[in-house]
Amino acid sequence: MSNAQGRSKRLAWKTVIAAVASAAMLLVAGCSGSSGSTSANTNQKVQLTFSQWWAPEMPAGALQNLIDQFQSQNANISVKLISAPFASLQTQTISEAASGTLPDVVGLDGAWVNPLYKQGALLNLTDAMKSANYDPKDLASQVGYNGSTYMIPVVNFVYPLFTNDAILAKAGITTPPTTWSEFTADAKKISQSQAGAKGWVVPLGTTNPNGVQNDILSWAWASGGSMLKDGKPALTNNPDVAGAVDLVKDLVQSNAVLAGANGLQETDKVENFINGRVGMMIDSLAHVSTITKGNPNLKFSVSAQPTKDGYSGKPGILTASWGIGVSAKSQHPAEAWKLVQFLMSQSANSKLSTLANGFPGNTASKPDFSGADPHFQQAFGIYQKSKPVNEFTGLPAANQLMTDFLNEFQKTAAGQEPTSTMLSNVQSQWQQQF
Amino acid sequence: MSSFSSSAVRRRVTARIGLYIGLTLGAVFAGFPVLWMLSSSFKANSNIFAYPPKLFDSSFSLAPYMAVLSNPVEIGYFVNSYIIALSVTAVTLLVALITGYVFSRYEFPLKRIINVVIIGVQAVPPITLLIPFFGIMVGLKLYNTYQGLIITYVVFTLPYAVIMMTAYFDSLPKELDEAAKVDGASSQSILWRILVPVSVPGMVSVGLYTFMISWNEYLFALTLTQTDDRRTVPVGIQLLMGQNNYLWNEVMAMSILGSIPVLVLFLIFQRYFIGGLAAGAVKS
Amino acid sequence: MTTSLVKPGRDQRPASVPDRHHHRPIRQRLEPYLLISPTVLLILALMVVPIVIVIVYSLMDNVVTDPSPKFVGAANYLAILTKPAFWAAAGNTLIFTVGSVAAHMVIGVLFALMLNSKTMARVPRAIFRAIYILPWIFTASVVAVLWRLLLDPSGVINYLLTSVGVLHEAVPWLATEATALLAVTVINIWSGYPFFMISLLAGLQGVPSDLYEAAKMDGAGPFRRFVSVTLPGLKPILYSMALLDMLWTTQQFTLIWATTGGGPLGRTEMLSTFTYKLAFNSYEFSMASTSAVIVLAASLVVAIFYVRRQRKEAQR
Q1: What is the pLDDT of residue C14?
Q2: What is the pTM of this model?
Q3: In a domain? residue C230
Q4: DSSP assignments along C213-240, one per residue
Q5: Residue A87 and residue B244: Cβ atoms within 8 Å?
Q6: Which B residues 183-242 touch C at CB under 8 Å?
Q7: pLDDT tens across B120-168, in order?
Q8: CATH code of residue A222
Q9: pLDDT of B66-83, one tens digit each?
Q10: Which of A160, A242, A161 is nearest to A200 (CA)?
């Protein structure tokens, strides 16, 4: 037998032996491997699982410290923190709910509470509060259906207007705009006066359609407008929504926004702002630390989102939240509620929101501004003067609603249909979900 | 057949130059994005989006790599990925060799239907299989275990592996079998002693494919694992891309780090393509 | 005629076998089934069962989100097949698939030939092999992030093209209606060709060198040798790779989702993203299952075609 054949024969045998050996080893090893379980290990200790995407957004170990505090206050409960990647959170949570493996306590986004509720996957928190004799008076808001709560916002993130001082100054603008017409004029002025910068950035990418919520409809909400009437879609004959659409459309069509809007995602907003390619953006306050870390020399201001010309009522401010809920299939609902209660308690909630660069979901809590970036305190001032609003929270198939709106908006921005047609198309698509 | 005339030498030199030009162009196509990934892994996060883009800039630092390598959780992701990918490769190869042999050398009723089913099951969009599959895994108590993922990936890679091994065995003439049978060999020893050694290039390519699929798969790794001690590298990378906090340079660093051992594995096994192992042994 | 899958140890049929099988002992007839039983069992339990569940879902009204779904028969199929968005997605998928597969084949053959060339020393060959296989080692979400970075208006590709003068202004490749599908296809080609290159390299080893010698003696130049010796030798592999790649490319989801999400204006909407949106945006799992079954049915046609071809090849 030739050398080559002998060598390959030995390889073949080696492979086969390795295969059989590893297969056997694995079967043995895997059997003793651990697996995430939500059932109690001993009679004394109750083991809870808490899945969230919050830990990576805060300093390392910060959330674990809070959990340790909870565990020291409740000796019979141990909490296992599970981190989930934010991008696939929706897929993962819905899948877990469908197969009954939802963790005991679960971090929720307002956009997907509705399907979880419909699946019967969430515990009725109003009942849990009653059994625990908990008075919800300090909760800033609750999300629920049919008079019962299913999700409680823990930390609120507001979306003010960020403006790059240097870019605005170069275009001759001294203060951030406060009305729609000022904003439009400023954005166009910036884009025309500077080669490497545009006035505004609007992410219209389809992967995560929340540009609709953050950058289009927020204009209507900031001026007291609404896209719903009695909880049902009301987009046609709605001057606030039409005005918002026209505002954004105008800026896109006159090239006052960053190029490639149809492919941009929320992260692109921040990265381009940090790199001085965009003069203004409406973005989550939580990104202040991203900006200061990324470009410590960048001087920027935070102000309220401009309102419609002539609007004098209380301005709205777009607020997204980190919500929390309990699995309906949890084997320890009482203990799970204790964890929720802890996270909503005045001191814990205060700490949590400060760490996360957000505002507390407990009305009695105040974020700790000492040593923090001054922009936070400014934004808190704006927050206290405005009405927090996000009409997509708790809506059925919120992501699909946003996608429908986005697809039609892309069409109208490309000049394929007028705003009125766009809104009536979206209206009829939305009605299929309600 | 080599001639030493000047025109033949010139032709050969031109051919060589042409070859190297082609190779370089191909290398740019294949390697430039990876080079960019490497360069991004050394930059500060916001510099990755700076304009004009630079290959290496003043923020060059090994910090992202240190962050990944000093984090035991992330090292754990690497370990898990390797355990799973190697196990899947071993099991799939083993099963596929036997199955391919049967399909190639035997005739039996239902062969055709089974063949169609094996190929056809690859056609279902994995995203729709997710929920029923998940339910089955939970029911079998394989949620958040190594075996759960291993069996999943074996099932995903078996169809192709079986097809490939069948095709390879088909290309080996039945005379080899006949000769061995005459000498009194059983079907199993025909497979292991005669056919397998000659199918090494096919085995290596199936092995590589299986390894890569298990290595890179994200959706089912995400769904079938819950805790960090069972998670794999693709999930780990996704965890670095948070809602408000994006660690691009660590994402790139983790990718590069994960790819190095895979490259090394490939370089070791690619020798078995060389030398026309199959060519000589089969046709003579 | 035996029509049931005989499981080991159970059914011991009597010795009266049909004529087309010669009188072989039971054990020998059971042997093939025994040997392939692991494969069959695994695939049955973990592929066929979920697929059956998906088919059942497609016949019901709104599973998963509705605790008690009703049977609706073919209503979902009618609804999906009359949706223009479905056909648009199907069209995009076809273009994407055909383009990707064709390019994979061409690049795969080219690179495999180059890497197989005898005029290269060992070390450069190993280096180039390593470089050429790089796109395959990275997971789809990283590839997506990387290419979004590269193709950004302020990214390096636009920078190079505008500096050299090919473009006079940066093009947002993934966000422009006209170029999005092309861009996504190129990314898919980049990340998928190494597999074909490897398989073709292995296949090239199987083409006997004496055929090349014979062709050279007949005076065939390199191109002629390629067409008359290499291509025919690679034909079975090329054929099976092409069919398999078609099946696999229709599943491609993560890459498209992370780069364009099916936009802009639906230009890169594939059947995979269409199905995903039905399942996880609208929570219409029944409709998503319906879409999946339609894709499965179309692919089964391809699969049957493939098996038939294999049979013809084996019988030659």
Answers
A1: 45
A2: 0.88
A3: yes
A4: HHHHHTT--HHHHIIIIIHHHHHHHHHH
A5: no
A6: 187, 201-202, 204-205, 208-209, 212, 215-219, 233-234, 237-238, 241
A7: 787 777 888 888 888 899 999 999 999 999 999 999 999 889 888 887 7
A8: 3.40.190.10
A9: 999 999 999 999 999 999
A10: A161
